[in-house]
Amino acid sequence: MDALKIKTAILAGFDWGARTANIIAALWPERCKAMVSVSGYLIGSQESGKMPLPPKAELEWWYQYYFATERGRAGYDKYRHDFAKLIWQLASPKWKFDDATFDRSAASFNNPDHVAIVIHNYRWRLSLAKGEPKYDDLEKQLAEGPVITVPTITLEGDANGAPHPDASFYAKKFSGKYAHRLIKGGIGHNLPQEAPQAFAKAVAEVDGY
Predict the structure, then answer these.
(1) What is the average pLDDT value for the chain, to the nearest integer?
(2) What pLDDT is stored for residue 51 in this prediction?
Protein backbone atom coordinates (compact mmCIF):
# COMPACT_ATOMS: atom_id res chain seq x y z
CA MET A 1 0.00 0.00 0.00
CA ASP A 2 2.86 2.36 0.77
CA ALA A 3 4.55 1.55 -2.52
CA LEU A 4 1.32 2.17 -4.43
CA LYS A 5 0.63 5.31 -2.39
CA ILE A 6 -2.68 3.89 -1.16
CA LYS A 7 -3.52 5.47 2.19
CA THR A 8 -6.53 3.32 3.04
CA ALA A 9 -8.20 0.34 1.43
CA ILE A 10 -10.95 -2.19 1.92
CA LEU A 11 -9.27 -5.50 2.70
CA ALA A 12 -10.95 -8.78 1.78
CA GLY A 13 -9.79 -12.37 1.77
CA PHE A 14 -10.14 -15.96 2.92
CA ASP A 15 -7.83 -18.36 4.76
CA TRP A 16 -4.33 -16.85 4.99
CA GLY A 17 -5.66 -13.77 3.18
CA ALA A 18 -8.39 -13.27 5.78
CA ARG A 19 -5.84 -13.78 8.55
CA THR A 20 -3.66 -11.08 7.00
CA ALA A 21 -6.60 -8.70 6.61
CA ASN A 22 -7.60 -9.32 10.25
CA ILE A 23 -4.10 -8.50 11.47
CA ILE A 24 -3.84 -5.28 9.47
CA ALA A 25 -7.31 -4.18 10.59
CA ALA A 26 -6.41 -4.90 14.23
CA LEU A 27 -2.96 -3.31 14.31
CA TRP A 28 -3.32 -0.53 11.73
CA PRO A 29 -7.03 0.35 11.57
CA GLU A 30 -6.18 3.75 10.11
CA ARG A 31 -5.08 1.96 6.92
CA CYS A 32 -8.15 -0.28 6.67
CA LYS A 33 -11.37 1.44 5.58
CA ALA A 34 -13.40 -1.75 6.02
CA MET A 35 -12.97 -5.51 5.78
CA VAL A 36 -14.57 -8.64 4.38
CA SER A 37 -13.32 -11.75 6.16
CA VAL A 38 -14.26 -15.29 5.16
CA SER A 39 -14.60 -17.53 8.24
CA GLY A 40 -14.53 -14.57 10.56
CA TYR A 41 -11.86 -13.75 13.13
CA LEU A 42 -8.66 -15.65 12.37
CA ILE A 43 -5.98 -14.00 14.50
CA GLY A 44 -4.09 -16.74 16.32
CA SER A 45 -1.04 -17.07 18.52
CA GLN A 46 1.39 -19.68 19.76
CA GLU A 47 -0.37 -19.66 23.11
CA SER A 48 -3.72 -20.46 21.55
CA GLY A 49 -1.99 -23.13 19.48
CA LYS A 50 -1.05 -24.95 22.66
CA MET A 51 -4.67 -25.61 23.59
CA PRO A 52 -5.78 -29.15 22.71
CA LEU A 53 -9.00 -29.59 20.77
CA PRO A 54 -11.52 -32.43 20.89
CA PRO A 55 -10.33 -35.44 18.85
CA LYS A 56 -12.67 -34.81 15.91
CA ALA A 57 -11.42 -31.24 15.62
CA GLU A 58 -7.79 -32.35 15.87
CA LEU A 59 -8.42 -34.80 13.02
CA GLU A 60 -9.32 -31.90 10.74
CA TRP A 61 -5.82 -30.49 11.34
CA TRP A 62 -4.03 -33.71 10.34
CA TYR A 63 -1.75 -31.92 7.88
CA GLN A 64 -0.49 -29.57 10.61
CA TYR A 65 1.01 -32.54 12.43
CA TYR A 66 2.30 -34.05 9.17
CA PHE A 67 4.14 -30.80 8.47
CA ALA A 68 5.72 -30.96 11.93
CA THR A 69 7.85 -33.88 10.73
CA GLU A 70 10.74 -33.99 8.28
CA ARG A 71 8.80 -36.62 6.35
CA GLY A 72 5.95 -34.13 6.04
CA ARG A 73 8.22 -31.41 4.74
CA ALA A 74 9.76 -33.74 2.17
CA GLY A 75 6.35 -35.11 1.24
CA TYR A 76 4.88 -31.68 0.67
CA ASP A 77 7.91 -30.66 -1.38
CA LYS A 78 7.57 -33.76 -3.56
CA TYR A 79 3.78 -33.86 -3.85
CA ARG A 80 2.75 -30.24 -3.35
CA HIS A 81 0.45 -30.28 -6.41
CA ASP A 82 -1.38 -33.45 -5.35
CA PHE A 83 -1.41 -32.39 -1.70
CA ALA A 84 -3.02 -29.03 -2.43
CA LYS A 85 -5.56 -30.63 -4.73
CA LEU A 86 -6.56 -33.02 -1.96
CA ILE A 87 -6.98 -30.10 0.45
CA TRP A 88 -9.16 -28.30 -2.10
CA GLN A 89 -11.35 -31.40 -2.38
CA LEU A 90 -11.64 -31.88 1.39
CA ALA A 91 -12.22 -28.19 2.11
CA SER A 92 -14.81 -27.72 -0.64
CA PRO A 93 -16.48 -31.14 -0.95
CA LYS A 94 -19.32 -29.88 -3.16
CA TRP A 95 -17.20 -27.75 -5.50
CA LYS A 96 -16.74 -29.60 -8.80
CA PHE A 97 -13.72 -27.66 -10.01
CA ASP A 98 -11.89 -28.91 -13.08
CA ASP A 99 -8.16 -29.50 -13.52
CA ALA A 100 -7.68 -26.26 -15.44
CA THR A 101 -9.18 -24.23 -12.58
CA PHE A 102 -6.91 -25.88 -10.04
CA ASP A 103 -3.81 -25.70 -12.23
CA ARG A 104 -4.14 -21.92 -12.60
CA SER A 105 -3.72 -21.56 -8.83
CA ALA A 106 -1.26 -24.44 -8.48
CA ALA A 107 1.26 -22.62 -10.67
CA SER A 108 2.00 -20.38 -7.67
CA PHE A 109 3.20 -23.40 -5.65
CA ASN A 110 6.28 -23.60 -7.88
CA ASN A 111 7.80 -20.61 -6.09
CA PRO A 112 11.20 -21.66 -4.65
CA ASP A 113 10.34 -20.51 -1.10
CA HIS A 114 6.77 -21.85 -1.08
CA VAL A 115 7.45 -25.04 0.87
CA ALA A 116 9.67 -23.31 3.44
CA ILE A 117 7.01 -20.66 4.14
CA VAL A 118 4.19 -23.19 4.50
CA ILE A 119 6.16 -25.53 6.76
CA HIS A 120 7.43 -22.69 8.95
CA ASN A 121 3.93 -21.25 9.36
CA TYR A 122 2.43 -24.47 10.65
CA ARG A 123 5.42 -25.31 12.83
CA TRP A 124 5.30 -21.81 14.32
CA ARG A 125 1.65 -22.33 15.25
CA LEU A 126 2.67 -25.40 17.30
CA SER A 127 5.65 -23.57 18.88
CA LEU A 128 8.03 -25.82 16.94
CA ALA A 129 9.64 -22.88 15.15
CA LYS A 130 10.54 -19.38 16.28
CA GLY A 131 9.16 -16.23 14.74
CA GLU A 132 11.10 -13.18 13.59
CA PRO A 133 12.33 -11.42 16.77
CA LYS A 134 11.78 -7.93 15.36
CA TYR A 135 8.03 -8.67 15.29
CA ASP A 136 7.81 -9.89 18.88
CA ASP A 137 6.00 -6.75 20.08
CA LEU A 138 3.40 -7.15 17.34
CA GLU A 139 2.96 -10.83 18.21
CA LYS A 140 2.31 -9.89 21.84
CA GLN A 141 -0.45 -7.54 20.74
CA LEU A 142 -2.00 -10.19 18.50
CA ALA A 143 -1.78 -12.85 21.22
CA GLU A 144 -4.22 -10.77 23.26
CA GLY A 145 -6.89 -11.29 20.60
CA PRO A 146 -7.49 -7.61 19.84
CA VAL A 147 -10.96 -6.43 18.93
CA ILE A 148 -11.32 -5.21 15.34
CA THR A 149 -12.93 -1.78 15.15
CA VAL A 150 -13.29 -1.25 11.39
CA PRO A 151 -16.61 -1.97 9.61
CA THR A 152 -16.69 -5.67 8.79
CA ILE A 153 -18.72 -8.29 6.97
CA THR A 154 -17.84 -11.91 7.69
CA LEU A 155 -18.81 -14.63 5.25
CA GLU A 156 -19.12 -18.40 5.51
CA GLY A 157 -20.02 -21.04 2.97
CA ASP A 158 -22.67 -23.59 3.87
CA ALA A 159 -20.39 -26.47 2.85
CA ASN A 160 -17.01 -25.45 4.24
CA GLY A 161 -15.10 -28.67 4.92
CA ALA A 162 -12.03 -26.93 6.39
CA PRO A 163 -11.61 -26.25 10.12
CA HIS A 164 -13.46 -23.04 10.93
CA PRO A 165 -15.11 -21.44 13.96
CA ASP A 166 -18.85 -20.97 14.29
CA ALA A 167 -19.89 -17.37 13.65
CA SER A 168 -21.31 -17.05 17.16
CA PHE A 169 -17.82 -17.47 18.61
CA TYR A 170 -16.30 -14.43 16.93
CA ALA A 171 -19.07 -11.85 16.49
CA LYS A 172 -17.97 -10.06 19.68
CA LYS A 173 -14.52 -9.54 18.16
CA PHE A 174 -15.91 -6.85 15.85
CA SER A 175 -16.90 -3.62 17.57
CA GLY A 176 -17.65 -1.51 14.48
CA LYS A 177 -20.65 -1.91 12.18
CA TYR A 178 -20.82 -5.63 11.56
CA ALA A 179 -22.80 -8.22 9.63
CA HIS A 180 -22.44 -11.93 8.97
CA ARG A 181 -23.58 -13.69 5.81
CA LEU A 182 -24.00 -17.42 5.23
CA ILE A 183 -23.57 -18.13 1.53
CA LYS A 184 -25.67 -21.10 0.49
CA GLY A 185 -25.54 -23.45 -2.48
CA GLY A 186 -22.83 -25.91 -1.50
CA ILE A 187 -20.17 -23.22 -1.10
CA GLY A 188 -16.98 -24.50 0.49
CA HIS A 189 -13.77 -23.05 1.87
CA ASN A 190 -12.64 -21.11 -1.20
CA LEU A 191 -15.62 -18.80 -1.10
CA PRO A 192 -14.18 -15.97 -3.25
CA GLN A 193 -13.65 -18.38 -6.14
CA GLU A 194 -16.73 -20.53 -5.58
CA ALA A 195 -19.12 -17.61 -5.03
CA PRO A 196 -17.38 -14.58 -6.59
CA GLN A 197 -20.57 -12.54 -6.93
CA ALA A 198 -21.45 -12.92 -3.25
CA PHE A 199 -17.88 -12.03 -2.29
CA ALA A 200 -17.83 -8.95 -4.52
CA LYS A 201 -21.28 -7.93 -3.25
CA ALA A 202 -19.96 -8.00 0.32
CA VAL A 203 -17.03 -5.76 -0.61
CA ALA A 204 -19.39 -3.27 -2.25
CA GLU A 205 -21.77 -3.41 0.74
CA VAL A 206 -19.11 -2.87 3.39
CA ASP A 207 -17.83 0.12 1.41
CA GLY A 208 -21.08 1.82 2.35
CA TYR A 209 -20.83 1.13 6.07
Answers:
(1) 97
(2) 92
CA distance 92 to 63: 16
Reported in sequence order, the residue ranges of the chain that DSSP labels E, i.e. its strands, are 9-13, 32-38, 152-157, 178-183
Q: How many CB atoms lie within 10 A of CB 54?
A: 7
Polymer length of the chain: 209
Q: Cα(180)–Cα(38) distance, rounded to whole angstroms?
A: 10
Contact 40, 170 (CB under 8 A): yes
- Residue pair 155/145 in contact by the 8 Å Cβ criterion: no
Is there a contact between 41 and 173 (Cβ–Cβ < 8 Å)?
A: yes
Q: What secondary structure does DSSP assign to 80-116, as a single string?
A: HHHHHHHHHHHHSTT----HHHHHHHHGGGGSTTHHH
Using an 8 Å Cβ cutoff, are 12 and 32 in contact? no
Percentage helix, strand, coil for the chain under 3-state DSSP, each rounded to 5: 55, 10, 35
For 59-112, the pLDDT digits (tens) are: 999 999 999 999 999 999 999 999 999 999 999 999 999 999 999 999 999 999
How many Å apart are CA 36 and CA 12, to the nearest integer?
A: 4
